[in-house]
From TrEMBL:
It is found in: Periplasm. It holds the Pfam family DctP. InterPro entries: DctP_fam (IPR018389), TRAP_DctP_sf (IPR038404). One of its GO terms (biological process) is transmembrane transport. Keywords: Periplasm, Signal. It comes from the Bacteria. Residues 1-23 form the signal peptide. This is TRAP-type C4-dicarboxylate transport system, substrate-binding protein. GO terms for cellular component: periplasmic space.
Length: 327
């Protein structure tokens, strides 16, 4: 006759077996992300992972690795394309050097608020996703950064004040912008930004209040000039082979999680934009609108960058702008 203990341990063993079987069938996905763990993009990555677990009944189990800890920002896209990581997140316009169309969200002064950025994405989405599909990537969701403005360590009223300044760029467009202002660009990942500023490798950059806050740039810099030149987007991408290997049901569950997270992430970005400026000010920085003379210079450079982008990215770029302007 079986003892109670024996019965209990048999029950425990079968539960353990069931869990093991489930775990064996669950897909474990490591998801490298480029920005700080406390950044809203990364926090939303965790929300996405939780939703995916829920909607797939635990069959896809995503572990988020923020801050470039698994793959550095600049390596994430290649890692996902080649299947070293099944899924990952990166700054889309960082890839405009390989495919100019991917700089759609980094053309100055086209979409200077969230609503227009959403409209621009609606116009760009199919073409951009088509381009990424050619690179073995499926886009799950995209999320906008707050508007981009300039950080300096002195007051700047026009390009007379920017000559020779060492400028941290994050892609080809920001490097061009800097050069047009007489600055010297050096490309640095957000994860290495504080160090680049502390060591004098860079002394200015363009970004959102978000990255200035994440990187505590008030330790080295003094001024932020609001420009809202553009709202660049991060995107969460999955390897196309991995995606095609999922059942239609699983794809739908993951896409549902992605759609919901994309909406929530953009809303969170918008709700934090002014809060970041308050934090910069609370830490001693001067935060103001760019002076009219400086802004006029930036707009002139922006117009040139827009025609350069269309020349480089071709008919698809023009079609995106036409669709955007038609709405
Ligand atoms: N922060 C990122 C990209 C855009 C932004 O606001 C960065 O500075 O790298």
């Amino acid at each position: 006759m079986k003892t109670l203990t024996h019965k209990l341990s048999t029950a425990a063993a079968s539960v353990a077996l069931a869990i093991a079987a489930n775990a064996a069938s669950a897909e474990k996905w490591d998801m490298p992300m480029a920005y700080a763990a406390s950044n809203f993009h990364s926090e939303m990555g965790v929300v996405f992972a939780d939703k995916v677990r829920e909607y797939t009944g635990g069959e896809i189990d995503i572990t988020v690795h923020p801050g470039g800890s698994l793959f550095k920002g600049g390596e994430i896209k290649r890692a996902v394309q080649t299947g070293q990581a099944p899924i990952g997140e990166r700054f889309m316009s960082a890839h405009a050097n390989e495919a100019p169309l991917l700089g759609w969200d980094n053309v100055p002064f086209i979409a200077t608020n969230y609503a227009d950025n959403e409209k621009l994405w609606a116009a760009a989405k199919d073409k951009v996703n088509g381009q990424l599909a050619e690179q073995n990537l499926v886009t799950l969701y995209t999320c906008a950064w707050p508007g981009q403005g300039f950080y300096f360590k002195k007051p700047v009223a026009s390009s007379a004040d920017t000559q020779g300044v060492k400028f941290r760029s994050y892609n080809t467009a920001t490097a061009t912008f800097a050069e047009e202002l007489g600055m010297i660009p050096v490309q640095v990942e957000a994860a290495e930004l504080s160090q680049a500023l502390a060591t004098g490798v860079a002394e200015a950059f363009i970004s959102s209040g978000s990255t200035g806050y994440d990187r505590k740039v008030w330790e080295t810099l003094t001024h932020y000039y609001k420009v809202n030149a553009w709202h660049p987007r991060n995107y969460v991408m999955v390897n196309k082979g991995v995606w095609d290997g999922l059942s239609a049901d699983m794809q739908a569950s993951v896409q549902k999680a992605a759609d919901e997270t994309g909406v929530a992430c953009n809303a969170k970005s918008a709700s934090l934009a002014d809060w970041y400026f308050e934090q910069l000010e609370a830490n001693g920085m001067v935060v103001e609108d760019a002076a009219p003379e400086f802004l006029a210079e930036l707009q002139k450079i922006g117009a040139k960058m827009q025609s350069d982008w269309v020349a480089e990215a071709g008919a698809d770029a023009q079609a995106i702008l036409d669709a955007y302007n038609a709405n």
